[in-house]
Specification:
567 residues, alpha+beta, Glucose Oxidase, domain 1, 3 domains, 8-stranded mixed sheet, 5-stranded mixed sheet, 8 helices, globular
Amino acid sequence: MRPRRHFTAALMLACFAMLLRVETTYGATIVIANFDGAGEGMNDPTPATPVGGNPGTTVGAQRFNVLQQAANIWGSILPSNVTITVEAYFEALPCNAISGALGSAGPKWVWFDFPGAQYPGTWYSMALADKLAGFNIYPEGGGDIEAYFSSGIGTPGCLETTYWYYGFDSQEGLGTELLPVAIHELGHGLGFLTFADETNGALYQGLPDVYSRFMLDNVTGKHWHDMTDPERVVSAVNAGGLVWDGPAVTAMVPSLLGKRPQLTVNSPPSIAGVYSVVAAGFGGNLTHPGVTAQVVWADDGVDATRDACSPIVNSVAGKIVLIERGTCRFVDKARRAQDAGAVGVIFVDNVTANVPPIAGGSEPSVQIPVISITLADGSDIDTEVANGVNATIGTHATERAGADLAGRLRLFAPNPLQPGSGLSHWDTAVYPKMLMEPTLSGSLLGYQDMTRHLMRDLGWFTGSTITAVENPTAPRSLSLRSAPNPFRDAAVIELELARAGRAELDVLDLHGRRVLSLLAENLPAGRRTLSWGGQGEDGTGVPAGLYFLRLRCGGESATTRTVRLGP
């Protein structure tokens, strides 16, 4: 069994740094096994200049280093005393000039009814099965995960406007950063996927997997492991109605999800109402009640299209602009609208679908709110634009983005079905955007993510001593924060102790090794602020990349992550 899930990208591909919240540094060993042929993939001998903390001097070496960096990040998060091996390849994946698959991965083997399994007759990914059993269940099977990454990005006919960026510092510019793509794909291999066939609803060899036990259809009220095959076929395209029912994820929804983005058409009465939208991966923050203005189409003076692929020539100052999805980058369209004075952007899909498109990309200069709607909703609004439409781009007052009314996080169940992407990702309606969505979005630095909590629901932390907050409202005896994140010159660190005691604050690398001791003294209860300028024990600057700050006091610990940027 070799289930894989795809990570795709739209025209503008920009990246984000590691999002997973870390409370305790673990020591799982995850190794990358290079399965590329001579002279290709991770063996490409083309000379390269070290970049963004990646010391490789060839393209192949830099690729390998990125994958191992992703493996180290997961290893620092997950507890396991069994080595996890990833068989990795760079090869041609489905691609065209403006979109394509960035990666594809899944467990090489799956297992059930092994020692330590929490559910009988239930499939587990090999890495998780080994962790729960405490030993390598199938040593003769080779690796635990198979992972494939696109070798064609930036070549004719494949995502021609971008290229792989191999740094660790999220400074990809017009490139596409490989690191978060690798983290995403390894997440699938570690268990973030169902083995059920979304096209016919069949369970793999008639048995459910542990992931499907938490997939709940909130229309039928059934979990996937309790459904018939026909019921699963219907549920697989129940957009907005298929949710994750795990307690760890649900507990974090109030603190990690923002309010639900929405478009409210205020007038005329014929089309007034609240419309479903997807927030772009870039643009200004959506607020409540939001930005209200007249709605007009963009006109770039070229052909009959309204895609803003050229400078906008009509008057849009102080207005919300409708822009057709087209062949140029979302960020360029939005920037042109902002430059022309628009106060908001609504992208209208150019194909029929029951969910709005994902406007991916990263462009810090775009500070107006940006959302997208379906072709059907755009057509309804279009019927009245000439007569005057007034609308508000904002958020719901209370409801969370990407969650149902019971506070459960939605899974991606698009209609029509998208094999390889559906079910095993978060819904695109989540806000802020998340690591395990089906399409690479904009920069997510500074946000936390639900991925670690889903891994907790799957059983990764069973039997482990952890300090994670199961109840986000429960009191904590110590806390730790760092800002800005990422930082270039210095990070300001704020710690808080509920009780007096000896406090130790260390900077750790991805292997859990101490880089620097920032604090080791007796402190009274209360807050204290100090800074780290990115230096190691010898006083010289450490390489750009991801580091952990670990605070220990009174037998407890708290850990957060910080990213140091390059010069």
